[in-house]
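Hi again,

Forgot to attach this to my earlier email, sorry! This is the prediction with zinc ion bound. I've pasted everything inline since the attachment limit keeps bouncing my files.
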Amino acid sequence: MKKTPGGIFSITVLIYLLAGCTTSNEGNIMGLSENEIETRLDKLPTSLTSGDLFNTSILEPTQLFDNLYFVGYVSVGSFVITTSEGIILIDTMWTPYDAEHVIVPGLKELGLNPEDIKSVIVTHGHSDHYGGAHYFEAKYGATILMGKDEWNYIHDPKAPVLTDPFGNFSTEIPLPDTYTQVTDGEIIRLGNANLTVLATPGHTPGGLSLLIPVTDNGEPHMVAVWGGTGLPDTKEENQNYLHSLNYFQNIANKKGVDASISNHPFSNNLIEKMNALKNREFNQSNPIVTGNKAFNEYIDNELRINVKNKLSSFK
Ligand SMILES: [Zn+2]
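Structure tokens for the complex follow:
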């Protein structure tokens, strides 16, 4: 039977229901009562708290390529790169709770061993990306890889304080004790893996974007991860964002990018693509590989138009 879009939607909903929601006080690392959590969340706009960015339904852990996996919520997740010498984790979700109760069980469900995590790349310094980093450093001895400006940003008392879906303030989230600085253009190597790190400030002062060589049933592809999608507040930050976007697109095209993924899976259709992947027939191509043209359309028609519109509002 052919799958209709409605059928795919139902599967998505079913996955959410089967996986269940994480209740907010379970993920509150300060142990606040539900009332206290509600008081904090009530201060946020409803468009945020009822939107995708606060949707903590767990998605089914999914293998995207031979050597790349996704674990996480609808709102945000982690990518897992397997290599001949261990695992590289990209981003760590909101909290140590997420690390322990979503990422680690997700890895196990995929047949991977969390003890193999050697490095954790934090794309940027918002708590939905670095929240579990300290957990992996403390529990598995993972090396935390970040840009220097971003390391400074997560320690900057003047940086905006974010509230997460569990009512934690970002200032309450434990930070990694140490980090290894990565710089623009650096190749991160572990075993047979080598991924390119690009400094793309804008969304935050020192964010990173990534180009990841993968294989699909042995066939090579190049996956792009744009590090921070949401637009920043000031004119200067948005100018940096646009500059970084142009730079990222240029290098990504030189490296032959033919797939693009976001660790906010509700954006860039990752959830739909993962569902299509589960229903993929043996002779079908990988739905995440949408080609170089589609990558450029995403950059040109969504990300660049958005930032240009915002920049024009400053004049
Ligand atoms: Zn962010």
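The pocket of zinc ion is lined by residues 124, 126, 203, 228, 230 (CB under 6 Å). The chain has one domain: 5-312.

That should be everything now.

G.
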